[in-house]
Amino acid sequence: MIKEYLELGQIVSTHGVRGEMRFDPWCDSPSFVKKFKTLYFDASGEKPVKVLSARPHGNVVILMLEGITTVDEARALRGTVLYMKRSDAHLPKDTWFISELIGCKVVDSDTEKVYGEITDVTETGANDVYHVKTNTGVALMPAVKEFIISTDVEEGIVKVRPIKGIFNDED
Fold this sequence. Notes:
- The structure is a single chain.
- This protein is mainly beta.
- The chain has helices spanning about 70-75, 100, and strands at about 5-15, 20-25, 40, 50-55, 60-65, 80-85, 105-110, 115-125, 130-135, 135-140, 150, 155-160.
- The protein has two helices and twelve strands, in the order E-E-E-E-E-H-E-H-E-E-E-E-E-E.
């Protein structure tokens, strides 16, 4: 399901004395955070904050936000989740955020049989793996073009053509 505002990560601590913060990004890489000029303190986009600087530092981002100029102000934001506006991400065609895939129904592209719902996605390096909650448990489905026929996150449907045994032995 497409959401206009998505969680980007969390402020985990301060950095220095000028109001900079250590930000734990919940995305593929810390450099992704550099794309954004504005972030949000809420999931509805009603509390924007301008990003003055964002630089990767190992697996975190050193972040400076407008209006935060002291270590005490930065410390007060520890634990705060920051949101991004989806349209600011400029993703390539046929690319989605994991949070948009969560909750999508998994449907057989040939028979329209509903297998279940995506509850999680594991990134393995070679390909993602969808965790599909079925009536009998959780099935793991490789997210490769041979199995995933189409994805429509706006409608909440992922059409698949699974190999025998992924959802049960009768497939």
